[in-house]
Amino acid sequence: MTPPDPAALRHALADRLQERGILKTPAWRKAVESVPRELFLPTFFTDRPGPDGVTRYTPADAGERLALSYQDETWVTQLDGHLTADTADGPTTGFPTSSSTMPSTVVGMLESLDVEDGMNVLEIGTGTGYSTALLCHRLGEDNVTSVEVDPAVAVRADAALERAGYSTWTVTGDGLLGHPRRAPYDRTIATCALRRIPYTWVRQTRPGGIVLATVGPSAWSYGTGLAKLTVTGDGTAEGRIIGRASFMPARAEAVLPLSGDLSARAAYADSERPTALSPDLLNDWMPAFLAQLAAPGAQLLRVLGGDSQETVHLFDTGRESFASLTADGSTWHVRQGGPTAIWDAVENTVMAWQDAGEPDITAVHMKVTRHAHTYWIDGRAGLRWTHPLPPLGG
Fold first, then answer.
1. Domain 260-355, what architecture?
2. Does the pTM of the predicted model rise above 0.90?
């Protein structure tokens, strides 16, 4: 059987992305057709649920890797901060900690970056290096700085970039600090999800420059939005959420799921009442995003009890507060404890959004200052949220 032609696969990928309206400009199409994604995916995992519902990760077969590289799929390249497909003995479980994001997401973000020839770009999260290579092809390797926190991931990405012909500025370090040595930047782009956009990025991006990053104020794996902000001359950045986006969290902001006896954490409630808002609504992207704005420190957990009754917990360990919801027939009851009434805040926000006609996530505006993040939906009471930043705003 004749192996597939990589150039033909790249051309076909570009065709598909263009037909879907994701790939819009000739310069980015040329980059997609020129950068060999397979060089950045020498090994990776495929995944599928096991019989127990737990996802199994299997090293991709060598004969399939080339074709799979040009599917519009996200491929996991590292589990648990160390395990790669070339070191795994076979199918395994674990927590994904590095991946090659699906090309449609990567290219869509790059198109939204609105770059022009000669611009200086800071990329946070090198990952496999594929998006870095696309940037290098479009702007030139001397105009791209990419920061990766994981030393092993950085080494593999740097080697792949060299094989692809791009000797760019790759840095191992905490991307939340940016890279002041090569600042100011015309564009800053992050390929990880953030609870907040670091003010250091605003400081390192020139006035008129753009910061593009995925934000979700709580430690949730969904309900996040792609923020596109323009830096102003007064040291702030303002813009809006331009769409849904999903990335792995920045390593420094990753939160381990709560463990142990969750019922004990929620044993002592200050109040209990019925609620008109079902927590099932939080399975939908926009209500989930709004819930995070209303309760930015909360973790969401669903627990099935021995009686097959589901309990939905929201824990904010930083504020020592919780909300626990259980259903009695068609009625949900909420128990709340601690200094912050988490569910009251979520309920008020989601109901205000419903009263406003359920606007899309793209209706959310955002501003970053040295002191706070502010989100709002124009002209809507109850749909404005301010999240203070730590004293130094970094």
1. 2-Layer Sandwich (3.30)
2. yes
